[in-house]
Amino acid sequence: MMFNILPVEKTQDIFFHIFNHLHQTGKQLVLTADKAPIELQGFEQRLLSRFKWGLSADLQTPDLETRVAILEKKVYADGIEMPKEVLEYLAYSITTNVRELEGALISLLAQSSMNRKVITLELAKQMIDKFVKNTAREVSIDYIQKVVCDYFDMPLELLKSKTRKREVVQARQISMYFAKSMTKSSLATIGLHSGGKDHATVLHACRTVNNLIDTDKRFKVYIEELHKKIIIQ
After folding, report:
1. Is the pLDDT of residue 6 over 60?
2. Are residues 103 and 69 in the same domain?
3. Distance CA 176, CA 109 (A)
4. HSE of 184 in the Cβ direction (CA atoms, 13 Å)?
5. What digits encode the pLDDT tens for the residues 170-190?
6. How many domains are there within the chain?
7. Average pLDDT of the chain?
8. Is residue 174 part of a domain?
9. Domain that holds residue 182
10. pTM value?
């Protein structure tokens, strides 16, 4: 079997006419790319100008709440009952994209069905370990905050609140410290996930934690224990 591969210029010319036809007949077009229209290279100017006609939306990786909602909707649509703590654990553990998130859910369901085991948090942890065994899984801000909150027995909502209570402020600073050192997130992103703080607040938190590590032996133990809990995910 032979395939005729059209030159790039010819392909763009055909696409240009298809775009015009669909637009003129009132059809809706949805185009996706990993860059904004203004940053695309290798396209004819007439195409780029048309790409700019519509609404450009920057789609970010879904946050923790969205990942949990996706899983809840999926199991509800399939008529499956699953503990909320299991769904939350999957959402905490898989942060890359929705396809992998749904893949983890399918794997968990398969494990449960084949081995005739009830879906529990322990089963989910065993499955996740195998699911990501050969994958370098990046630690997420959400996961760091969960570990810190669990360690200090504190609700996540309190960590992200505006309260200035000493124990909450310190837990928030610790989560910022680990987020800066263990993720690729910008200071602005870390601050946004920490109750809407600015980058200067994140830097201050990191300096505070570093100073306490050097001067407070008990605090240093907290940090060492938390670090172990975060990397053994």
Report:
1. no
2. yes
3. 35
4. 2
5. 999 999 999 998 888 889 899
6. 2
7. 84
8. yes
9. 141-231
10. 0.47
